[in-house]
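Sequence, structure tokens quoted for completeness.
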Amino acid sequence: MRGRPMDFLSLQENLRQLLLRRIRAGQLSGLQLARQAGFQQPHISNFLNSKRGLSLGALDRVLAVQHLSVLDLLDAEEISRHARVVPPSKDEFQNVLLVDADSAFQPRFSRGQVLDVVKVRKLLLKRLRPALEGDCSAWQRFIFILASAREGMSMYPRLLPGAWVLLDRHYNSLLPYRRNEHNMYAVVHNGHCYLRYAEQDGSFLVLQAENRSYSAHSIPLAGKPPSSYIAGRICTIQIET
């Protein structure tokens, strides 16, 4: 029998528990969350301590700054009914979703966010080694994103604008996939998805372009691990000719 749909209060409680797990894991603090969402710290503190709720607008702001969607607050049954946009393939190919690059940090995707469905050989995906840091094991592992004009040219000639980039989102470590080769990553910062090489330099995550006419971009880590910004490793590139 299908369970009763979750109400607004249940979604708020699930958000509260998710944020508390991130705080206990050292990935977040109440002060950081307040600054990100533009709230006074007591407002967030009262929410985290179950002394008050959030308005719908405030809930949207918290979800946005934490790169979450409502699907992250649903139970498994609700996710199964609402977020499964394509059935699993029964042949030698796997269906992989093509989504907007700025959505690369979302664990799952609704039908409206899917631009296309791409078939990829299961054998290729099976060979790819993960290197997962943090609590992303439940994320949809493989997605395609489109390289924008800027990001495609920043990695020229390895990338081109409009290329379809396959991300392994279970590889968010800075460990090199192959010896003596730099990994290419999708890195999300301030709502923008960068396609770059990445390395940690002290308290910064430094993004380097292949095309030297593009300057490096530094992201202050502020005590967070680099994996907090890495949406996945670029493992395959498809370019139309």
Observations:
- Residues 132 and 185 are 13 Å apart (CA to CA).
